[in-house]
Amino acid sequence: MAERYAASEAMLDRARQTIPLGAQTFSKSITQYPLGVSPYFAARGQGSRLWDVDGNEYIDFINGLASVTLGYNDPDVTAAVKAQVDHGTIFSLSSPLEAEVAERLVAIVPSAEMVRFGKNGSDATAGAVRVARAYTGRDHVLVCGYHGWQDWYIGATARNRGVPEATRALTHTFPYNDLAALDRLLDEHAVAAIVMEPMNVAFPAAGYLEGVRERATRHGAVLVFDETITGFRVANGGAQELFGVIPDLTTLGKGIANGYPLSAVCGRRELMMEMEEIFFSFTMGGETLSLAAARATLDKVVREPVTRHMAELGTSLRNGTAALIERHKLGEVLSLSGHPSWTFLLIKDQPDASAFEIKTLWLQEIFARGLLSLGSHNMSYAHSPADVDRVLTVYDEVFALISAAIGQQRVRAELRCEPLVPLFRVR
């Protein structure tokens, strides 16, 4: 096994000399990939496939942390970017691409009347919070889900080191599908914004999103849907289109440009006009390669059955995985949740093995068999029925191994590495 990842581990040793953790993103580091049984560096990607620096090929269900919705090196997106390179990447004046992409977002996203661009999801959510605070004159923010690395949000998590207590005190978390908990916080604080992922691990209960919408209006709070992942995935216009509940502001990222760095804040004109007064400005906010990629991506999402394809294949994968869980009598250990285009394989603690030990064993075995996942199935337009068949073949083997290891109390003995430990829980 060490030989399989020799180049990756050598590159990791090198990177850790100059980069904390050896990676720019927690989710690509040793905090998520168990050391000794994992790849760490990619050489290239094409379609639904990724190759690591050791030459190992994987069917990828991480897809750039759900940012690659069309598949790696999509020909339409790549052609658009190559054409734009000849004209330049950043100018001393704005590019017409800014308006062209904004117009497409207004046409696709139900809540969007005006748009401003950032480079990643954290930019967008922080911008939305600043707009909400400026508009309402209030400070407190309620959050549900994951919303990026900046102080206003991360201070409310276990990863709050370096965030001032005064900032941490302004953000309050509430559980999903629990209107009573939301009511308590709205009664306790003068709330500027309710920021939430409209869907992540679970579907909204009947009337839940409608209830959040009503409460935001009644309390004078700005409702922000963080659709960084759900946008262009669960439906073209995101979860707000799927469930018919329209927020005041929406934040977008990830799949907006098929992996190129771009995000957006969009929403009601009255709110978005605050952007003329608050400071939300980036040298690279109008960078043209990402905007060209976004224009091509959005055109393809509208032109072709991208979200339908992801949902249909994801349904096949979910149903097949559920059948294998039952076949291997793992119903007390494994379960599935989420939208078919973004499903989660959930793992429960067992008497003689923690969920993280079991997950580490699962990762060890799927990586060795050419699958890349960290616990979710982030479908792309490039995935095929053959890819789903291969996943189910691998799961049949790996679930059998996990079932036997749990039954024989040998989960730790089957590990060729130290088990993972929690980073922090957000969903």
Q: What report would you give on this structure?
A:
With 427 residues, the chain is an alpha/beta fold. It has two domains: 6-61 and 306-414, Aspartate Aminotransferase, domain 1; 75-303, 3-Layer(aba) Sandwich (Aspartate Aminotransferase, domain 2). It is 40% helix and 15% strand. The protein has 16 helices and 14 strands. The strands form three sheets. A seven-stranded mixed β-sheet has the order 4-10-9-8-7-5-6, sandwiched between helices. A hairpin with a 4-residue loop joins strand 2 (49-52) and strand 3 (57-60). Helix 8 (179-188) packs parallel to helix 9 (208-219), helix 13 (306-327) packs parallel to helix 15 (385-407) and helix 14 (355-368) packs across helix 15 (385-407). It is globular, with a radius of gyration of 22 Å. The two termini are 32 Å apart. The mean pLDDT is 96.
Compile the SSE list and pairings:
Layout lengths: L5 H10 L26 E5 L2 E4 L4 E4 L2 H4 L8 H11 L10 H13 L5 E5 L2 H16 L3 E5 L6 H4 L10 H4 L2 E3 L5 H10 L2 E6 L11 H12 L2 E5 L12 H5 L5 E4 L10 E5 L1 H4 L15 H16 L2 H22 L6 E6 L2 E6 L7 H14 L2 E2 L3 E3 L6 H23 L3 H4 L13
Parallel strand pairs: 3-13, 5-6, 5-7, 7-8, 8-9
Antiparallel strand pairs: 1-2, 2-3, 4-10, 9-10, 11-12, 12-14
CATH superfamily of the largest domain: Type I PLP-dependent aspartate aminotransferase-like (Major domain)
Spatial ordering of strands, largest sheet: 4-10-9-8-7-5-6
Distance between the ends: 32 Å
Provide the gyration radius in Å.
22 Å
**Poorly predicted parts:** none
**Percent helix among the residues?**
40-55%
Structural shape: globular
Helical segment tally? 16
Mean pLDDT: 96
Sheet with most strands: 7 strands, mixed
Q: What is the ordering of alpha helices and beta strands? A: HEEEHHHEHEHHEHEHEHEEHHHEEHEEHH
Strand-pairing-aware structural class: alpha/beta
The CATH class assignment of the largest domain is Alpha Beta
The number of E-state strands comes to: 14
Instruction: Please give the domain count.
Output: 2
The name of the CATH topology of the largest domain is Aspartate Aminotransferase, domain 2
**CATH architecture verdict of the largest domain:** 3-Layer(aba) Sandwich
The percent range for strand residues is 5-15%
